[in-house]
Design goal:
It is a single chain. By secondary structure, the chain is of the alpha/beta class. 30% of the residues lie in helices and 24% in strands. It is built from 13 helices and 21 strands. Helix 8 (181-193) packs across helix 9 and helix 9 runs parallel beside helix 10 (259-270). The longest helix has 20 residues, at 213-232. 47% of the residues are buried. The structure holds pyridoxal-5'-phosphate (PLP). Pyridoxal-5'-phosphate (PLP) binds at residues 64, 66-67, 85, 108, 205, 208, 243-245, 280-284, 378. Pyridoxal 5'-phosphate binds at residues 245, 280-283, 379. Pathway: Amino-acid biosynthesis; L-lysine biosynthesis via DAP pathway; L-lysine from DL-2,6-diaminopimelate: step 1/1.
């Protein structure tokens, strides 16, 4: 479900014409819909609120900032009461700058530095998710130096990986994330024994773009068992952070688990445990809330019949296809008449991985036509770069009939200004 629809034959974001945005801001440009962000958050919030006994009355929904860290996107979610799941000092700073209070911020990540841990303590994050014994020891030292005892959860690796591609699986035995179950129990006891930590529970996140509930359910049951074992040893376990990872329909699939089914499964697994749950959705909230607008530079027709649709968006603007063979639907912004035929969708970057798709069936397209990659609101702009000295892709946020450039494309002068010349070269 999203708010990108045809109005009078042309694709709009809510009530704003994408053609108008492209004419004003240029391309490539990401366009986000506030209504879609709001709708997805509200659906999840309502689903969670239907299970106060199983999930806790104040269950936190913490948007995974790494999926889309634009300050206006975060501020849109902040106004709805959404928290933030963060993996760096920069992401914590972005969340705070978007008016997400510290007590709604979770600090995750496999390699937090001492300085980042100290920063997280200073701004009062809700909880720090610990991913290894080595990290636990460093946090104890940092907290001891400050004379405080921050809330922590232990991220358990349940040896169940899942996700839309091997490169986005995190819960498998050989993945770098989390603490193996056998080690999690003694680690928790060690945390309890430290006067400089306040262990509040467990966390788990097994992968991304997960399209079936079974692996998640199995992982959560494992985490529940760990929680019960810990309680059996007399340790308090008050919170279970269930991570993110629920998939979205990139192909227009209709057989994905619904938000309601997902939350009902979580409630079933936690039933009777009396914990407060937390959710860390990234893709679920943002993916379908964004498109990437691009113009056709030209069509390269080969003698053997192959046709390349050369776009002004490249892998530096939308890296998901090159990084993990991701699928993004491409649609003309103004529908074109004519027989459908195959195109290879490519960018202008000098890399053979700069290809978005092969043999896509599209109506006839010409130089100058405006097209949109759909479902590009998560892991899109955040992964963009200036490779090939292409200015960083712009971002626009739409809200009803209002719209704003929320990350302007830099000028070349601005780009060069970030690279002061070594004095001996002046
Ligand atoms: C990436 C990540 C998420 C969000 O994953 P999605 O698939 O975008 O929902 C949540 N929690 C942690 C710890 C993550 O690393």
């Amino acid at each position: 479900m999203n708010h990108f629809d045809l109005i009078d034959g042309a694709l709009h974001a809510e009530r704003v014409s994408l053609e108008r945005i492209a004419t004003t801001v240029g391309t490539p440009t990401y366009v986000y819909s506030s209504a879609t962000l709001t709708r997805h958050y509200s659906l999840l919030r309502q689903a969670v609120d239907r299970h106060p006994k199983q999930l806790g009355a104040g269950a936190l929904i913490a948007f995974a900032v790494k999926a889309n860290s634009n300050l206006s996107v975060l501020a849109t979610l902040a106004k709805l009461g959404c928290g933030a799941d963060t993996v760096s000092e920069g992401e914590i700073r972005r969340a705070l700058a978007s008016d997400i209070p510290g007590d709604r911020i979770i600090f995750s990540g496999v390699g937090k530095t001492d300085a980042e841990l100290a920063f997280a303590i200073d701004v009062g994050v809700r909880q720090i998710n610990i991913e290894s014994g080595a990290e636990l020891d460093r946090l104890i030292a940092v907290a001891a130096a400050k004379g405080v005892a921050p809330a922590i959860a232990i991220r358990v690796n349940p040896k169940i990986g899942a996700g839309g591609h091997a490169r986005i699986t995190t819960g498998g035995e050989t993945d770098k994330f989390g603490v193996p179950i056998e080690e999690a129990i003694p680690l928790y006891a060690r945390a309890i024994a430290s006067p400089h930590l306040t262990p509040v529970g467990l966390a788990c996140h097994i992968g991304s773009q997960i399209t079936a509930l079974e692996p998640m359910e199995a992982a959560f049951r494992t985490v529940r068992q760990v929680a019960e074992t810990l309680r059996g040893q007399g340790h308090p376990v008050e919170r279970l952070d269930l991570g993110g990872g629920l998939g979205v329909p990139y192909h227009g699939q209709t057989d994905l688990p619904s938000i309601d089914d997902y939350v009902a499964m979580c409630a079933r697994v936690l039933d009777g445990l009396d914990v407060e749950a937390a959710f860390e959705p990234g893709r679920l909230l943002a993916a379908n809330a964004g498109v990437l607008l691009s113009r056709v530079i030209q069509v390269n027709q080969r003698a053997d019949g192959r046709r390349f649709l050369v776009l002004d968006a490249g892998m530096n603007d939308l890296m998901r296809p090159a990084l993990y063979e991701a699928f993004h639907d491409l649609v003309p912004v103004t529908p074109r008449e004519g027989e459908m035929g195959p195109y290879d969708l490519v960018g202008p970057i000098c890399e053979s991985t700069d290809i978005f798709a092969r043999d896509r069936q599209l109506p006839p397209l010409r130089a100058g036509d405006l097209v949109a990659f759909l479902s590009a609101g998560a892991y899109g702009a955040v992964l963009s770069s200036e490779y090939n000295s292409r200015p960083l892709v712009a971002e626009v946020l739409v809200d009803g009939d209002r719209w704003a450039v929320v990350r302007p494309r830099p000028s070349y002068d601005e780009m060069w200004a970030r690279e002061p010349k070594a004095e001996w070269l002046e």
